[in-house]
Write a structure and sequence with these properties.
- This protein is of the alpha/beta class and 427 residues long.
- Helices cover 26% and strands 20% of the residues.
- The chain has helices at 18-26, 51-58, 83-88, 108-120, 165-177, 218-226, 269-275, 294-304, 319-328, 347-353, 382-389, 413-424, and strands at residues 66-72, 75-77, 95-101, 127-133, 156-160, 184-188, 208-212, 233-239, 252-253, 259-264, 276-277, 283-291, 310-316, 334-339, 368-371, 403-406.
- The strands form 2 sheets. Strands 2-1-3-4-5-6-7-8-10-12-13-14-15-16 form a 14-stranded mixed β-sheet. Strands 9-11 form a two-stranded parallel ribbon.
- α11 links the parallel β15 (368-371) and β16 (403-406).
- α7 (269-275) runs parallel beside α8 (294-304), α8 (294-304) runs parallel beside α9 and α11 packs parallel to α12 (413-424).
């Protein structure tokens, strides 16, 4: 112990192997994927312990390979003059960089954002994951400074487009052409896209695609997806409008797609579901504001011959819609339901999910269920009986419920009593 009562820090790196020190220091880093430099957190904090720790920290590229730059009207945090020294310490280690502008930046932030982007471009050869979120305030002209070299480590990009995709495409093509191994792409915009004829996007290598805030029209979305044959994860947010182009030919097959996340206010989502086939589909999450196109969705599941494991639906549907859905998705292990209009989890639905001596008629392998209050319109006690019946494993072909999350109103007295008993462990 030192005189002031604090324990002595390890004096030299000779006391532990270098790789052990590396793991210890790495686990001192903040949990954020992109690190905001601070004297009170690692790695800068480690440099203040003693000279030996400082030398160790400065010699570990992994500690300096992540950086978050916050951009405001008065400048950047950290100052852009510190960006180069920070990232230089990472050496050849793959870099994760986030450039984010204040939502109310003022005029001064425009120049600051451009300076921030220019400060990280010299490190393009070691980019691995980058997020550029300037909102609708700034063009991407600084991307013209990208070096004409291939960056084999660059595989993840998040871009907040300052205008429509059509207006930003020239500058975006520079980064796409220099990133042949891009695997993950997220595009966001506040400008509703217009249809771009003959849209060609170099997305052939993508395994994950997120299109937020109606970057493309429905027609363009389908055309983009067709150009992504290797997708594993697809997320489409805030789809709106209608299909204008008449598509012919068989459905497009995406052999590897496992996760589909869609939110839409379009009344033509049946056209979307009719356009594709997903043989490997496992997880589906849909928020549909209008009537859910159950027939088209079940046709998608049927022709894909996939075994859905997880289904999350927030939609306007009927009791009959839901029963057909559960019958067509008998392999489900996780089910989440919420209503955007009226309750469709009725007595008939709950009775069909309830175990009897011969087992349930629907979803025998269900292990997790979540029901929002708005979707329940059953008699008091029906829900409790269904859940209780599925806590006991009847035979090898069925599964027990392991997790239940239910929101119910005060009028469901028997269901509430059952829930409270389960919480106390009396059942």
């Amino acid at each position: 112990m030192t005189q002031n009562g604090y324990p002595k820090p390890f004096a030299t790196s000779k006391q532990l192997p270098f790789d052990v020190w590396g793991e210890v220091f790495f686990h001192c880093l903040p949990l954020d994927h992109f690190i905001q430099p601070s004297a009170f957190t690692a790695p800068l904090l480690l440099c203040q312990i003693n000279r030996a720790w400082r030398d160790l920290a400065l010699s570990m590229p992994r500690l300096w390979s992540s950086l978050s730059v916050k951009i405001g009207r008065n400048g950047c945090i950290p100052n852009t003059k510190l960006v180069s020294p920070w990232l230089s310490r990472a050496g050849a280690h793959p870099l994760c960089i986030s450039l984010t502008i204040d939502r109310r930046p003022g005029f001064g932030a425009f120049m600051n954002a451009d300076t921030a982007l220019r400060s990280v471009i010299p490190f393009f050869s070691t980019w691995n994951r980058i997020v550029i979120n300037f909102g609708p305030f700034l063009t991407l002209t600084s991307l013209s400074l990208l070096p004409d070299t291939i960056a084999p480590q660059f595989d993840s990009l998040g871009l907040y487009l300052p205008a429509s995709y059509e207006e930003a495409s020239n500058h975006m093509s520079l980064i796409f052409n220099r990133s042949p191994r891009l695997r993950e792409l997220k595009l966001t915009t506040e400008v509703t896209g217009k249809y771009i004829p003959n849209l060609k996007v170099p997305f052939g290598s993508l395994t994950s695609l997120v299109l937020s805030m109606a970057v493309f029209t429905l027609d363009n979305c389908c055309e983009v997806i067709e150009q992504c044959p290797n997708l594993v994860t697809l997320q489409l947010d805030n789809l709106e409008g209608n299909f204008q182009q008449v598509r012919s030919g068989p459905p497009v097959v995406l052999q590897n797609l496992q996760t589909l996340i869609v939110s839409s206010s379009s009344q033509q989502m049946n056209v979307f579901f009719d356009t594709f086939t997903f043989p490997s589909l496992l997880d589906v999450s849909c928020l549909i504001l209008y009537s859910f196109p159950m027939h088209s969705f079940l046709n998608l599941v049927g022709r894909s011959s996939c075994s859905l494991a997880s289904l999350q639906l927030a939609a306007n549907m009927t009791e009959e819609d839901l029963l057909q859905c559960l019958q067509g998705c008998s392999s489900l292990k996780t089910l989440f339901l919420e209503s955007t209009n009226e309750g469709f989890v009725t007595d008939r639905v709950l009775e069909s999910l309830t175990f009897d001596n011969s087992g349930p008629s629907l979803c025998p392998t269900l292990e997790s269920i979540a029901l929002g209050e708005a979707c329940i319109s059953s008699s008091d006690g029906k829900l409790a009986r269904m859940i209780e019946s599925r806590f006991i494993n009847r035979n090898s072909s069925t599964s027990c419920l392991r997790r239940v999350s239910v929101s119910i109103g005060s009028g469901y007295t028997q269901d509430i009593v059952w829930r409270n008993c389960k919480r106390r462990g009396s059942m």
